[in-house]
Amino acid sequence: MGEPRWVEVRVVADAGMDAKRCVKAVQQLRKELAGEGLPTQDVKDAGGLAQDDGSIAIAVALVGAGGAVPTLVAVLRDWIQRRKSPGKIVVTLGDDSIELERPTADERAALLEEFLDRPR
User: Fold this and answer.
1) Angle between helix 106-117 and helix 68-82 axes, rounded to 10 deg
2) For residue 45, with 0-12 CB atoms within 10 Å meaning exposed, 13-18 middle and 19 or more buried, which class applies?
3) Is the pTM of this model over 0.90?
4) Measured between alpha carbons, how far apart are the two ends of the chain, in Å?
5) Between 54 and 10, where is the model more confident?
6) How far apart are CA 3 and CA 12, in angstroms?
7) Which pairing describes strands 40-42 and 5-12: parallel, antiparallel, or unpaired?
8) What is 5-117's CATH number?
9) 12 pairs with which residues across the strands?
10) Residue 111 CB contacts under 8 Å (≥ 6 apart), including other chains
11) Any idea of the CA torsion for 105, 70, 74, 101, to the nearest 10 degrees?
12) Which of 36, 44, 55, 108 could, after both became Cys, cross-link 12 (CB 3.0–4.6 A)?
């Protein structure tokens, strides 16, 4: 099956979200990703701790036969739509990143899926 591709998901708190709530939100996101069979780990340079901008990053493994990208897209879309103060998420794959705020249209999910499916 080969090595998984790792995607960094950084949750950036907005003005109404303190560091504790951001940590709790990321823990919930990790539970949801694990529930869908997507392994996660702390990002080495962040150590799972809040950065100066109030962000917390985790790495998500895209494993499996193509089903990981749509699953990741669905989990992120559902998770951020349920947040009261989601701030934004920044998804990084290699040297490319995409920023998403509360997605309201299927176009956001399609944009993220297209970004993650690009050949590297």
Assistant:
1) 140
2) exposed
3) no
4) 17
5) 10
6) 28
7) unpaired
8) 3.30.70
9) 55, 88
10) 98
11) -50
12) 55
- List the structure tokens of 98: 């995409």
pLDDT tens figures, 55-101: 889 999 987 656 788 888 889 888 887 776 656 788 898 888 888 77
CA distance 113 to 94: 15
Answer yes or no: are the C-beta atoms of 16 and 85 closer than 8 Å.
yes
Compute the radius of gyration of the chain from its Cα atoms. Answer: 13
Whether the pLDDT of residue 50 is over 80: the answer is no
Measuring CA to CA, which residue among 33, 26, 91, 93 is closest to residue 54?
26
Lookup result for tokens 């962040």: 46
Place of tokens 């920044």: 90
Using one digit for the tens of pLDDT, what is the confidence trace for 37-48?
999 998 865 444
The reported pLDDT for the residue numbered 40 is 94
* Helix boundaries (H) for the chain: 19-35, 68-82, 106-117
